[in-house]
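ok trying again, last paste got cut off:
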Amino acid sequence: MLMDPDMRRGEMAVAVPPAIDAGLVFIGRVRTPWATRRECPRRGREDGPVCRLEFFEPWHEALLGTEAFTQLEVLYWLHESRRDLVLQSPANDGRVHGTFALRSPVRPNPIGTSIVTLLAREGPALLVRGLDCVDGTPLLDVKPARFLFAPLAPPKPGVA
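nice, full thing came through this time. structure:
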């Protein structure tokens, strides 16, 4: 167990294994009004401020058709998060939870997800509401929200 003066009572950190390149590519940056983690809301809100997803080349063409959707799932890299806590006390009240039982940004692989409302496309950028990350956060992926699609029917017995 590692100790850190920034840890809350009951929290526990571990030594993080060496990184193995998973081949992630940042496809853009998220632009929000929040300069620091302390300013960020705990969850994005549907009536929150307009934020901008700015896409790098060569991903501009990948935006074709996004205008057809009202909601998108955005995945981003929480680059300012610590990665070593296995036990956390998010409310700082002494109650402790395992990292995988929380939506905390502190994770071994700090990937954030938000369901956002798409307001408009402006060239190589999307204007959205519902984000909760720091300005300049690296963008990993954008896709139509999964609940906009009907679930696949279960396979019929005897049909391959």
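cool. The CA atoms of residues 60 and 123 lie 8 Å apart. The chain has no helices and nine strands.
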